[in-house]
Amino acid sequence: xxxxxxxxxxxxxxxxxKLREMGIDPYPAALYPVDNYSTTIKAEFKDEESGKPVCIAxxxxxxxxxxxxxxxxxxxxxxxxxxxxxRDDINSEAxxxxxxVVFKKLLDIGDFIGIRGYIFRTQMGEISVHAQxxxxxxxxxxxxxxxxxxDGVAYDAFEDPEQRYRQRYVDLVVxxxxxxxxxxxxxxxxxxREYFNNQGYMEVETPVLQSIPGGAAARPxxxxxxxxxxxxxxxxxxxxxxxxLIVGGFEGVYEFSKNFRNEGxxxxxxxxxTAMEIYVAYKDYNWMMEFTExxxxxxxxxxxxxxxxxxxxxxxxxxAPFKRVTxxxxxxxxxxxxxxxxxxxxxxxxxxxLHVEVDASMGKGKLIDxxxxxxxxxxxxxxxxxxxxxxxxxxxxxxxxxxxELTERFELMVNGKELANAYSELNDPIxxxxxxxxxxxxxxxxxxxxxxxxxxxxxxxxxGMPPTSGMGIGMDRLVMLMTGQQAIQEVLFFPxxxxxxxxxxxxxxxx
RNA sequence: GACUUAGUAGCUCAGCUGGUAGAGCAACAGACUCUUAAUCUGUGGGUCGUGGGUUCGAGCCCCACCUGGGUCACCA
Length: 511
Fold this sequence. Notes:
Elements: H1 7-21, H2 38-44, E1 53-66, E2 69-75, E3 80-86, H3 87-90, H4 98-106, E4 112-121, E5 127-138, E6 148-150, E7 153-155, H5 161-166, H6 168-174, H7 178-198, E8 202-203, E9 209-210, E10 222-225, E11 230-234, H8 239-247, E12 252-260, E13 272-281, H9 285-304, E14 308-311, E15 314-317, E16 323-326, H10 327-335, H11 344-353, H12 364-375, E17 384-387, E18 409-414, E19 417-424, H13 429-445, H14 455-462, E20 468-474, H15 475-483
Helix pairs in contact: 7-9, 7-15, 10-12, 11-12, 13-14
This protein binds one RNA strand through α1, β1, β2, β3 and β6.
């Protein structure tokens, strides 16, 4: 059983056969000696250089045929350039039908072609390439969506998000600006690497498959190792492994960590996402705040050349330093209530009065966290460090040097969302074990996201970890901010999707 | 997971109080040697997401399912 090809697909397959009949390989093996790019030619051209030979390659994206001469647009990796193709220039003794048959009949929009020619300026003033030789480089069998542009405005853009994400390759080819988002994504990574490497910190790799999914509170993906016959989990964080490396004697280590969490999906959550975590010995969270704001400012400058970013209708300034507010002050500021001396019962009634939903399993720390989350978090649009979180919420974080109910923790809030999270790391092995045991109690109370106990990690602390500060930052969210995107799907090449109902595309055949 | 909204030609979209489908671009045939959303003439292309139901008759009404988007809940 075969599924019928569309009319346009049938025509393209016929063109493919005809090319072969004419002795033209539609998928040639030899390299094509490209020596220029569309936008480079346009940027660097000077009129006295008219006639300079170039060799370019790319997709044929539009055609304006006027009898014996045509203008086409070639799209290469950097952009588009217009090419003038005339019959008498590209026909040759070997291929006298190059223009009338190959170019006009057998080529389609989307096909890869190579052009040898020279640069010139048209009568309308557009810098173009005058073709002297046309080479078929790869024939396309499916029609691309046709998006036309005039003065930067797209007409009939390919914009169904389902199709754009499922077929990102098409999105990247036809929609202007999509590639730029991903180019910026890589610039963000490069800028951050440069920042860390310049200070002597080392990029490392730690296990993705873990037998205890530690370092964060989240539901993991589960898998199974056949040879060992044990369950394994895709990591939800890499924190505990990086700290083991600090125990081992590295002064600063960092990792861009693809993490996996088996939770809901929406426009700020994808089941696999990237966090960058860095740990530096002999530092504390105050040092880390400065380190973080300088990093974010540098990244923003490197990527955008400015510290002001437009996200939706808001302008966000990443100019360091960022504002710092303790969590208790934040709650005071946004509710008018001072919770600093309250016990669990008093907090519970505050939540009730403010209509913040709570349940019986929540302890004092969780209640404060809920209050902050409901009443404050969304208010911090400009980058702001929220500091000194309750101890129950932070089982891997060192107790605050002046208040044992709090921890030396900060989160960086931007655009009403958490962007980064950092601690003065807990390095007291006895305290760490007790905190893990508290988590176990929470788990028995019904909290299915409480942390697992990792005894090997505790053992490593018993061997001694220097005072250390660590910081994690959500790379996808950072890229969203740096590119002004409002959905995580827009900054991931291939966001997670439910499999589309298959109509056995593979069975498609001609006839 | 809940609510809501959508799925019609390769793409972007119309489609009346139910009477078995239209446009632009793309495609095909033709004209045109400086066009640029090229233009002009002509032509073809659709199991209207899938499966049921109501009806003389369903793209439209009803039910179920599939796959998106949005809002909420949980989370980074």
